[in-house]
Amino acid sequence: MRTIQFFDTSLRDGEQTPGVNFNTREKVQIALQLEKWGVDAIEAGFPIASPGDFEAVKSIAAVLTKATVVGLARCQRQDIDRAYEALKEAVHPQIHVFLATSPIHMKDKLKMTPEEVLASIKEHVTYAATLFEKVQFSPEDATRTERAFLLEAVQTAIDAGATIINVPDTVGYSNPTQYGELFAYLISHIKSEKEIIFSSHCHDDLGMATANALAAIENGANRVEGSVNGIGERAGNTALEEVAVALHIRKDFYEANSAIQLQETKRTSDLVARLSGINVPKNKAVIGGNAYAHESGIHQDGVLKNPETYEIITPQLVGVQTNSLPLGKLSGRHAFATKMEALGYQLEGEHLAQLFKSFKQLADKKKQVSDEDLMALVVDDIRQE
Ligand code: KIV
Ligand code: ZN
């Protein structure tokens, strides 16, 4: 069983969600909860980006004892120096240096030739390695980079001292087959005397960020980057809670685990949702409000007999108190009777049949039938007797 490292970037890439701006106190609060959740590394920010981000990274570096604290830096000396200043008090500091390697980014954004990009990687990773023991390099837009050049860029970074290679699917362009294959290719072609950690970093533009991360793991990645609730630029990043639970539930397939304390998942998700102001969609996997709710009669009947008929994840596994059986027009007699019993009404025979009929008539007119609605049905029934 391999152990996959979790690298959380909610406070850096996640903060790139339009409209999200964490202050230092909020970042520290989230970082402490992430450490409790069990992540191995926390990308606390981009220290050169603003004085506020510098302060936040520095404050997080001062309080975390277990998790590695990471600062982002472009291939520029002043970025690396600023990251060093922010992280120098950390128990476990790490720098994350990045430079784009795809033709479109090199030509239209960086206005650099491929040779200049390689030279810059060499110079800046070498410099970063003089200040940090742990140096991560990311070839930005790796999945749209010409493969031989990507290998050259990655090998250049390794030769210059990087021991963590992150492979970003910056624009969410890849798919599980191609992304997995890219990891297999890089891992089998790099040359290094030191052990190299390969890390996935996916965006969700085509809705494949979690599937891509899992494909990377299947093909040898031993670290996964992402954010809580999948917050991030555009459609967001890989939702780390999804990867953690997928590894746990399907350990038969992935044969890998993590240090994530799954029972802290809901608490972590709620905190990030509250402080980011980005609500979790009801139908979101693992932590959405409906993830453990069953409305149709057939499902409710099954769950009442044995929850495993329709639940592959128990709500308690991720810190959700209980599942729920909301009543609507598709609900069945079993769930209706169970709910009435919970409300204090023991219904049987003709009486149950009569009230169930009234419930169905009401449910046809409403999206959901509340406890108050159900009690009103009983009162009406008593009045008619
Ligand atoms: O998506 C991306 O390419 C990034 C890099 C900075 C790693 O976030
Ligand atoms: Zn990203």
TrEMBL record:
Q: In which pathway does it act?
A: Amino-acid biosynthesis; L-leucine biosynthesis; L-leucine from 3-methyl-2-oxobutanoate: step 1/4
Question: What EC numbers are recorded for this enzyme?
Answer: 2.3.3.13
GO MF annotations, alphabetized: 2-isopropylmalate synthase activity; acetyl-CoA C-acetyltransferase activity; manganese ion binding
Keyword field: Amino-acid biosynthesis, Branched-chain amino acid biosynthesis, Cytoplasm, Leucine biosynthesis, Manganese, Metal-binding, Transferase
Gene Ontology process terms (BP):
L-leucine biosynthetic process
Name the cofactor(s) required for activity, per the record. Mn(2+)
Q: Tell me, how does this one assemble?
A: Homodimer.
Protein name in the entry: 2-isopropylmalate synthase
The species this protein belongs to is Enterococcus aquimarinus
Which gene is the coding source of this polypeptide chain? leuA
